[in-house]
Amino acid sequence: MKEISGAQILLEVLQEQGVEVIFGYPGGAVINFYDHLPDYTCRHFLVRHEQAAVHAADGYARATGKIGVALVTSGPGATNTVTGLATASMDSIPMVVFTGQVPTPLIGNDAFQEADIVGITRPCTKHNFLVKRVEDLERIVNEAFHIAGSGRPGPVLVDLPKDVIAGKCLKKVAEKTSLKGYSPNYAGHPGQIQRAIEVIFQAKRPVFYVGGGVILADAAENLTALARALQIPVTTTLMGLGAFPEDDSLSLGMLGMHGTYRANMAVTESDVLVAFGARFDDRVTGRVDTFAADAKIIHVDIDPTSISKNVDVDIPIVGDVADVLGKMVELLKTSEPGTKACAGGHNEWLAEIARWRELHKLSYQQYEIIKPQFVVEKISELTRGDNPIVSTEVGQNQMWAAQFFTFTQPRSWLTSGGLGTMGYGLPAAMGAQVAFPERLVIDIAGDGSIQMNSQELATVVQYNLPVKVIILNNGYLGMVRQWQELFFDKHYSFTTMNHAPDFVKLAEAYGALGLRATKPQEVESILKQAFAHPGPVVVDIVVAPEENVYPMVPAGEAISNMLLV
Amino acid sequence: MKHIISVLVENEFGVLSRIASLFSGRGFNIESLTVAETEDKTISSMTIVTHGDDHIIEQITKQLNKLINVIKVVELTESVQMAREMVLLKFAVNGGAKRLELLRLVEVYQGRVLELGVRSLIVELTGERAKIVAALEVLAPFAIKEISRTGMVALARDSIKS
Known about the structure:
The structure holds two protein chains of two kinds.
Chain A: E1 4-5, H1 6-16, E2 21-24, H2 31-36, E3 43-46, H3 50-64, E4 68-72, H4 76-79, H5 82-90, E5 95-101, H6 117-121, E6 127-130, H7 134-149, E7 155-161, H8 162-166, E8 168-169, H9 190-202, E9 206-210, H10 212-216, H11 220-230, E10 234-236, E11 251-254, H12 261-269, E12 272-276, H13 282-285, E13 296-301, E14 315-318, H14 321-334, H15 336-344, H16 347-359, H17 372-383, E15 389-392, H18 396-404, E16 413-414, H19 425-435, E17 441-446, H20 457-462, E18 468-473, H21 478-487, H22 503-510, E19 513-517, H23 520-532, E20 537-542
Chain B: E1 2-10, H1 15-25, E2 32-37, E3 43-51, H2 54-66, E4 70-76, E5 81-92, H3 97-108, E6 112-116, E7 120-127, H4 129-139, E8 144-149, E9 153-156
Antiparallel strand pairs in B: 1-3, 1-4, 2-3, 5-7, 5-8, 5-9, 6-7
């Protein structure tokens, strides 16, 4: 066997791990890696900013379920990954990010382009590594992939000093990982699952509260089967959109701060609340002591720290939500009378929910000015049947997309839920488009947040990734403006964005198609034109400037206390 | 309420920092933290003294367990642990009756005199928390120049382990 360099070992391990795509940006510390990269089958996409490389890997991971990979250089390259790592960490997205590092003898000397990236990213990664010897590289890279993709997934960073990737050693075939302290528990406790089913059978007003965990675990199918068999209404979190078809009559839509009236009322009035892969985030619960106050709470999660963290739980089930849902569906088969009685026992409850649905639907007033909700509704309507992937930026655009797009498929929704990262949508859409070149990928954006990573228009044009960026342009940092309007006497301090670029010209400058709509009657034809175009498009849609997202639960209030108009 | 948590970790660089940043990042208190190698050189043992209600202690142990380098976490309640702390004290004393009195008190607490100089005295005290607290209170009136404490180290008792 011949000795090969660290860079080659890394590339071979990536190949063994099945990595097909790397998003990256070269630099002095990783030049050896880039030297060997063209010899391997991995496709590399050159982004225009390292933050975008990480978001693109994240979007790729969310859309495919595979582990996303990004590689950047040391120092500023590494520090630019921090927001992307924190975004993925909060949303439990499996990802491995490689950063260059100065040569090991220089570490700690304030060398050129040195940053203690392992120290910086410790709190925003699932785990991270500094590889000190080329002999450790293969094992560590394998461990990084194992950690990123197993248990509750998350981003892992591997810091690669220049002398480690330039150094040579023998590649040991499939060296075993050695993680003494890491063995996530996948199997839910059968006794707890049995207890949970018994409680669900007894429920008069049950609700399923479904989070991103169901999507990460690819458990949407079993969840849907369980809900339908037992006739239990389902609400999803922002991260859970797509886990249950929203065109099903059992769908309550999203819950929480901008949740639907019926979802928030149903959770508040429920007697049994079953949380699947959700973590009782403050944007979901509002005031914690009023959240499902009369309900027995069953919580299924693979991460024991999520259980009883914010809300006390009556029946905790630690395990893979796919395993637990599978076992629950199996249990139903052996207890047909219970299943039937349960399914037939909620008629009053379902009727109450239907009343709530009619009482306050998600709505908006049509006007001569384009309403942003109308645009999202149109996007949803025009793409039904295409199974598009929708990404968002953060703020009002994100909430309107969540509310007015009808989600029916898992892994078709890319949004920064936990961290709320503006500038996420375009690079994430880019990552998803790389994975699915034939699918329609739409970034629903705001005029503020698109400017945080608009440089990636160059990337999508370079690789002809036909992403459709739909800007809901209201000339404001809309969500903050909304808070200022409602809670700060309309003091619009620094939320007016009246110096945005001409987005049509911006698109054209990058070589993309730029379109604009200013009247409601133009929206449909402009969107159709955008979706039919074979390349990347930016659509600037001038919308009502002071439109608000409703319902809205003021921060810290009970979720039944909604501002409705 | 005070709790002693014993943690076995992989003896790797950065582990102490991971534990410390977990406590600071999540707003948990550390009253003392000791760390040293075990009989197996690849594993270190930490003893962390912290305080908080049951909910917080549960979160602390779960969060510690979640760290990849953490092998085992045991919360040692008072009935099942043997816990000790060592204190080194340097006194400024010039001989005479004061010194004799100090030496007698040190003897009462089963302390050892490590260095007896013309103007100073270094004493070692080891014991459980209550004894250390009492000794420090009794010795406070003497001129303590410097003090160095190890923090608690603890082990679970085999005889009472369920």
